[in-house]
Amino acid sequence: WGILFSHPRDFTPVCTTELGRAAKLASEFSKRNVKMIALSIDSVQDHLCWSKVRGVGRREGGLVLLPCSEDQRENPHRTEAVGQTSSAQPLTLSPCVQVFVFGPDKKLKLSILYPATTGRNFDEILRVVDSLQLTAYKKVATPVDWKPGDSVMVVPTLPDEEAKKLFPKGVFTKDLPSGKKYLRYTPQP
After folding, report:
1. pTM greater than the 0.85 cutoff
2. Residues in CB range of 102: below 8 A, 6 or more apart
3. E strands within 96-179?
4. Strand blocks (E) in 41-92
5. Burial class of residue 160, CB neighbours in 10 A (0-12, 13-18, 19+)
6. Residue 28: what pLDDT?
7. Would you call 49 a catalytic residue per the annotation?
């Protein structure tokens, strides 16, 4: 499993707090066999200076900063307004930053866009990883506000008889006004 998350530049306040939080949670992600990579256009030297200031991004914490480009003069990630060569702005200073989660099959499992002004919630990203891993290996789905240890939903494609065999702790159907029996829950396997 892998997580790739972008940040616009080193020494930006929101991203500094995010990388600090990611570094603090690195052992939790590692327990789940998840590797994290932060992506930025800044140079390796900038990353090293930044990591010394905040104590973020150190390899031993499980977090690696990966630069896109080190040449700030010829950076392909910069754009210029027509006729204004002095106002170059990195494209990554756009109004959003991304998080991508990849499974062991190297396929994208989750993509989230956050406004650059809003810090990412790494507890939520960890919760989603728990859900993705659980649902990848068991025939379940996770309901709204699910947390590890909560009951899960049996996937609707699983016949009742097979569900009873797969989930020995029981399958419980929620009564609905329509009378339909598709909301089936079971304790988390």
Report:
1. no
2. 1, 2, 3, 4, 108, 109
3. 96-102, 108-115, 140-141, 152-154, 172-173
4. 63-67, 78-79, 89-90
5. exposed
6. 96
7. no
Nearest Cα neighbor of 3 from 149, 125, 176 is: 125
For position 64, what pLDDT does the model report? 54
Listed as own residue / partner, the contacts of 179-183 with beta carbons closer than 8 Å and 24 or more positions apart are 182/156, 183/153
Sheet holding 140-141, edge to edge: 140-141, 152-154, 184-186, 172-173
Predicted local confidence at residue 41, as pLDDT = 73
pLDDT tens-digit map of 134-189 = 999 999 999 999 999 999 999 999 999 999 999 999 999 999 999 998 999 999 99
Q: What angle do CA 6, 10, 15 make, to 5 degrees?
A: 55
Phi–psi pair at 5, nearest 5 degrees: -130, 140
Token digits for 39? Answer: 């992506």
Considering 15, 49, 68, 96, which one is annotated as catalytic? 15
Domains contained in the chain, CATH given: 2-120 (3.40.30.10), 138-186 (3.30.1020.10)
State how far the Cα of 37 lies from the Cα of 7, in Å rounded to an integer. Answer: 11
pLDDT digits (tens, 9 = 90+) for 33-91: 999 988 877 766 776 666 666 555 444 445 555 433 333 444 444 433 333 344 444 44
User: HSE on the CB side for 26, CA within 13 Å?
Assistant: 18
